[in-house]
Amino acid sequence: MERKIDSKTVFSKVLDYLIMFVGVAICAAGVNMFFIPFRIHSGGISGVATVLYYIFNQKVPLGVMIIALNLPLFVIGLKVIGKRFMLRTTFATLVYTVIIDTTSVWLGNVSASIVAENNSTTDMILFSLFGGCMMGIGLGMVFTRNACTGGSDLLAEILRKKGISWSMGTIMFFFDLFTIVLSYIVFKNLMLCLYSVIAIFTSMKLIDFILDGANIAKAVFIISDSNDEIAEAIMSELKRGVTGLSGRGMYLKKERETLFCVVKNRQLPALKKIVKNVDRKAFLIVTTAHEVLGEGFTTFDKEL
Asked: By CB atoms within 10 Å of each CB, which of 122, 195, 217, 261 scores lowest?
């Protein structure tokens, strides 16, 4: 009996790999335009490879060194982590390194032309910020597809599977600290280290924004004497589920129901309007939900 192919599943997987491709392409562009020409880096394996690139007098392609440094982690990862995660990570890492090496000359010339347009004055802070932004956006896109580009994030996943409960932030902090120290030892330039710190900080903030911002929502608690009418309006107009939570008002010692609902950011004004139109005396509490999994939001298979 032939297995039926689910077109939605195929489309979802193709979209995942397309987003990963675009993400690593953005990362590679940031590295070649803003990091490599000025000896700046954004930490992790790419940061170590950037320093080694200059140690070997730029004779060994950067992508080749990234693959070589990641190889031991990939071997361990195949034994410790599931095949699905490693397949996506392998794809992202290989595409990342290939794009870095194939576009290095062209994007290096683009970087040189940017400097030439500014009367040969190099704005290192600007390049650190732009490189960090591109790295953060690209890596954030890859991370949302349940993959990574090797390095500290892959090491953190391996350690987690082995029962070592170090957070991703802790692992990346030590990795980045190592790359900054290595950069200072090799280049003997404290200013380059400080520029790299700017790039690392910027990329980490963008990663956090994409991972949290892409899945951020509002959790709303509603206390009203017209709960049924409000709930019906929310379910019919916003197509969002509403849960009634049993509670007790301690002032009047009366049992009363509290409505609980999670909506996307853009739906919050409409929800407030619904509550206002039904009961102007309603009590509304709005809080931020940094991650929401389930129907209508991010599916579990994207996260786990």
From this structure: 122
